[in-house]
Amino acid sequence: MTRWFLLPLVALVAPASAVPQAATPVAAAAPRPALIVPTVVARYPHDSAAFTEGLIWNGGQLVESVGLEGQSDVRRVDLATGKVTARATIPAAQFGEGLAAWKGQLVSLTWHDGIAHRWSATSLKRLGTLRYSGEGWGLASDATGLVRSDGSATLTFHDPATLAVRRTLTVSFAGRPLTQLNELEVVDGAILANVWHQPFIVRIDPASGRVTGVIDLRAIVAEVGATDPEAVANGIAWDAAKRRLFVTGKRWPTVFEIRLPR
User: Fold this and answer.
1) Is 171 helix (H, G, I), strand (E, B) or coil?
2) How many Å separate Cα 47 from the centre of its chain?
3) Closest by Cα among 142, 149, 139, 158 to 177
4) Residue pair 7/25 in contact by the 8 Å Cβ criterion
5) Using CA atoms, how far apart are residues 140 and 100, in angstroms rounded to an integer?
6) Which helix (H) or strand (E) holds 222?
7) What is the DSSP string of 25-67?
8) Mind listing the pLDDT tens digit of every residue in the chain (262 residues)?
9) Distance in angstroms between the alpha carbons of the first and the last residue of the chain
10) Alpha carbon distance 139, 168 (integer Å)
């Protein structure tokens, strides 16, 4: 499935003469999503050691979930300076993953443990844990609850209080399931998702699961110039009050504020 995903993206961004023949039947099966080229509005410093797994805007600051066993934490970060203003550690044996806010609390996932940690959004004090089945990759909140990715083509919608499963959604790109969905953010009712090891963010219709747009981060990835193969684009935060969209990546030195064309 991962290898198939590369074909429609090549078909989307490459000249027709460069598209492999194998991509032609796939492209004909369903409309291709629109390619969206963002404008960089501003650049802010970011901890280049942070293995970013979740990023949100909350309480006037960025809040970030950082991964890797023994290094995982949830931190509040001042946007202008990149300084960590508060930090809560995740148990050393656990790999921290996606992060979302819900009614004065933060919820952070772990990769393989099936444990979600609950934190005070203001103090980062640990408030308890919840359990879920499967892997934890990305997490986001909408008006009704939480939505989780697990590296597959399936998004799972959870009750925010108990993490009970409410429904699942298969994400499709040009008519085929799209795997490797990672960090998530909800923006104006649509779900944005990083795709692991890809310089693109996909925009997903939460009703149908169809990818309706592809945000092209290739110029930003090229500017970062990371040599670490795991220093991939991962991190999307939305400041709804000021309508600002931020993106970053694992071990990136920069948080980018971007604007999408109308």
Assistant:
1) coil
2) 18
3) 149
4) no
5) 5
6) helix 218-224
7) HHHHHSPPPEEE--EEEEEEE--TT--EEEEEEETTEEEEEE-
8) 333 344 445 454 443 333 323 333 444 457 789 999 999 999 999 999 999 999 999 999 999 999 999 999 999 999 999 999 999 999 999 999 999 999 999 999 999 999 999 999 999 999 999 999 999 999 999 999 999 999 999 999 999 999 999 999 999 999 999 999 999 999 999 999 999 999 999 999 999 999 999 999 999 999 999 999 999 999 999 999 999 999 999 999 999 999 999 8
9) 32
10) 14
Q: Which residue has the tokens 């490797």?
A: 180
Scanning the structure block, which residue is given the tokens 């940690």?
117
Other Cβ atoms closer than 10 A to 94: 21
Region label for 191, one of left (φ > 0), alpha (ψ between -120 and 50) or beta (otherwise): beta
d(CA 9, CA 79): 32
Cα 95 to the center of its chain, rounded Å: 16
DSSP for 166-182 reads EEEEE-EETTEE---EE
Answer yes or no: are the C-beta atoms of 108 and 97 closer than 8 Å: yes
Cβ pair 123, 156 in contact under 8 A: no
By the 10 Å C-beta count (0-12 exposed, 13-18 middle, 19+ buried), 9 is classed as buried
CA distance 49 to 124: 21
DSSP H or E segment with residue 172: strand 172-173
Residue 156 per-residue DSSP state? E
Q: Are 149 and 193 in contact (CB under 8 A)?
A: yes
Location of structure tokens 């942070």: 50
Q: Which CATH superfamily is domain 34-259 in?
A: TolB, C-terminal domain (2.120.10.30)
163 closest CA partner among 115, 208, 204: 115
